[in-house]
Amino acid sequence: MVFKNIIEKLENINGVSTSYSESWAYLSYEGVYNSKYSNSFFSDLYGAFVSQNIENAIIFYIDDERVSFSDFIEELNDGSKWGIHINKTNWLNKFDKTNVCHTFFYYKESFIEWIKGSDPFEEDYPLNKGHYHIYVKDIEENFGGSNVIVNSADIIDEFMGVEPIPDYHVEDYIRINCNSDFIIAPHKHIISWGNVNHVSKFFYRNTILVLLSSLCDEITKDRKIIIRGHKNILSDIGGDIFIEDNLLEYQNLLLETYKWIYNNGDSFAVKKRLFAERVSLDIDQRLPLYVSLYPILSDVFSQIKEQYSYIMYDRKDAYQKELKDLLRDIKNITELFSGKIRNILGNLLRDVLAGLILVGITLFSKVSELSALFENNLINYVFKAFGLYFWGSALLQIIFDYIDVNRSIKEFDYWRNITRSYISSAKFCEYKKQTIDKRFKNLLVYYILIILLYIGIGYFCFNYQSLWERTIPPSSIESIEQSNNIPQQSLDSINILIKEKNDTII
Question: Is the pTM of this model over 0.70?
Answer without folding.
Answer: no
